[in-house]
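Here is one chain, start to finish.
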Amino acid sequence: MLFLGIIGSGLIATTAMTLFLALVHRNHLANGDMARALGSLITKKEEGSLGLGLVIHYAAGCFFAVLYHSLVKFAPVDAGPYSVIFICLAAGFFHGLVMSMFLSILVAEHHPLERFRKAGPDVVIAHLAAHLVYGLTLGTSFYFLIG
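Its structure:
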């Protein structure tokens, strides 16, 4: 049952992150079309990339939920609701920093589609914020689904 709670939390948090990035993209604040960017890294074209990108993104979200849960489990503090949320939020911040730098340095420079090759500060900040949304939502979901 614990594993299902972790996976469920990962799905919820990934959905929140995906919706956040969709809002950023739709409002032209930054190129937040991450699912298509992920999928087209594999397919090398935009057509048919959304579904594959979502599968990759949700699989990664569930994988990272397991890692975040390990951090919570081994934290040297009482894992009350605020501790769980704070640990996941902090993990989301550091995860977001790493992924934002990875995105702006490696992915953007070598992406097969021109529209994903530009990753300026707006894209970096959007993805950092999206990982904060993931961490906050994951920590909250852990508390309510796992206890």
